[in-house]
Amino acid sequence: MADSFQLNLVQRPRRLRRTASLRDMVRETILRPADFIAPLFVVEGREAPDEIKSMPGVFRLSITDLVKECRALQKLGVPAVALFPKLDPKLKDEEGTLALDEDALVLRAVRAVKKAVPELTILTDVALDPYTSHGHDGVLTPAQDDVENDRTVGILAKMAVLQAKAGVDLVAPSDMMDGRVGAIRQALDAAGYTGTGIMAYSAKFASAYYGPFRDAVGSSQAAGTRLLSKATYQLDPANRREAISEVLLDEAEGADIVMVKPAGMYLDIIRDVREVTRKPVAAYQISGEYAQIQAAARLGWLDLARCRHESLLAIKRAGADMILTYFAKDMAAELRK
């Protein structure tokens, strides 16, 4: 017979973990379909959806299939989508000229989705990397050794107005140029689009985990490398205080929502941002984060459903009000069961 031993404890935290119902009662962070924004990739043509090899389960969609996907997401309770175009490399040039075409692919996609699913919130990317032959987020200096800040901002402001005209709810500048939020706000207001919001990629880091996204939009092929350095405009992953400075600048310039990107490896930044701003905080669970979970699950090393749930729970627990994630559809379906 084993010796009987009992601690004289007043506090036993395990009491509230004893049953599933008790755990539900004291749960501090809860995920909902309404927490998610689904990034979607759109291409020209009517071909069947094209799976992105480095992002299993994520597809480039024709406008027709994009509309179907948006309807499905809305029915699952996902309130918003973020649209990214993938262009034929032959249409790209050093200036990203097609970004200012009034009949550009992404603008046609916006109009089609708004007509079919008017209640869905639509975000569009304001950056030149899908349009430039070199893969950078802006136009290059005469020496071709850096992105020219102010000239790029002038183009981005025009892009934002075109997107607002097409019917987007939120323009989302992801370029990290200095002063672009203020310039975009001024341009939108001057054009009469005072109701169009700005979700600023405020603390976007020069991460090594963007490779699959660059595959998805074709900017890696344009540049000839998946390892294109954007260190002169995206944040140094080592810098915490600088991220807060960027967020506060964007807020002062008129951002309606501020964003941290990547999310999972930058939970400390999400928490810092949450504590310094009263604006809504978005976080982007990026392509590399998605891809590594998928890859490990396919090798049988991780439980996909549990890991995707835990990864998103951590982002929300850190302080994000909304999460851009390629798991949006699957998570929404799971949460509605």
Structure description:
- With 337 residues, this protein is α/β, with parallel strands linked by helices.
- It has one domain (29-335): Aldolase class I (TIM Barrel, Alpha-Beta Barrel).
- 39% of the residues lie in helices and 14% in strands.
- Strands 1-4-5-6-7-8-9-10 form an eight-stranded parallel barrel, surrounded by eight helices.
- The longest helix is centred in the middle third of the chain and has 18 residues, at 149-166.
- It starts with 19 loop residues before the first helix and ends with a helix.
Q: Number of DSSP helices?
A: 12
Number of strands: 10
- As a whole number of angstroms, the C-alpha radius of gyration is 21 Å
- CATH top level class name: Alpha Beta
N/C terminus separation? 46 Å
